């Protein structure tokens, strides 16, 4: 609005402006109120959803501790269908896969771990699911597929997992009878400092085997 010389002109101009723009101002206020209210409702809804998922995940942990496999499956399935947008979904799938491995149902464990890899954007959880899946593939003698899964890993996201992948690569090569490649992988895992407590023993076994053959 321009600067007016008299108060009467200002009042008249204000009336004209309100007549032309008043409805849009009111609409804007209403929309803003709805938006703010909707956002607050959404935040409250999300908080309640996460709390419910957390409670259900706690029940899953208790069922797992008690060895109640059916309850683990029940809670995991419920988290997967009703709370798929939360991190608890991926956690539940990891537990569900563990139970399938205990039952020696490796095909089911493989399918669940593949699902877990896509159920979250959390890089660390993805790596946990992938490394467990590679172990399942090793148990199923799917060695080439396991090596391919390692090769497909995004190298920029390896922090904390490089040694684990190298050790798994060594395990796969040992199973394939490729001892030289296995030794190299184990040595790289040792250098990364992230392997399992058995890593040095695995490398020593290869050295002992070489000595025996020599």
What's the quick description here?
The chain is an all-alpha fold and 214 residues long.
Walkthrough of the structure:
The protein is mostly helical. It folds into two domains: 31-140, Serine Threonine Protein Phosphatase 5, Tetratricopeptide repeat, CATH 1.25.40; 143-214. The chain has helices at 7-65, 69-82, 87-102, 106-118, 123-139, 143-151, 162-175, 179-192, 199-213. The longest helix has 59 residues, at 7-65. It is extended. The chain starts with 6 loop residues before the first helix and ends with a helix. The model has no long low-confidence stretch (mean pLDDT 79).
Describe the largest sheet: none
Outline: extended
* Name of the CATH first level of the largest domain: Mainly Alpha
The total strand number stands at 0
Any idea what the CATH architecture of the largest domain is?
Alpha Horseshoe
Remind me, CATH topology of the largest domain?
Serine Threonine Protein Phosphatase 5, Tetratricopeptide repeat
Portion in helices: over 70%
- The run of helices and strands is HHHHHHHHH
Instruction: Please give the alpha-carbon distance between the first and last residues.
Output: 96 Å
The rounded Rg comes to 30 Å
The percent range for strand residues is: under 5%
Return the average pLDDT rounded to an integer: 79
How many distinct domains?
2
Total of DSSP H or I helical runs spanning 4+ residues: 9
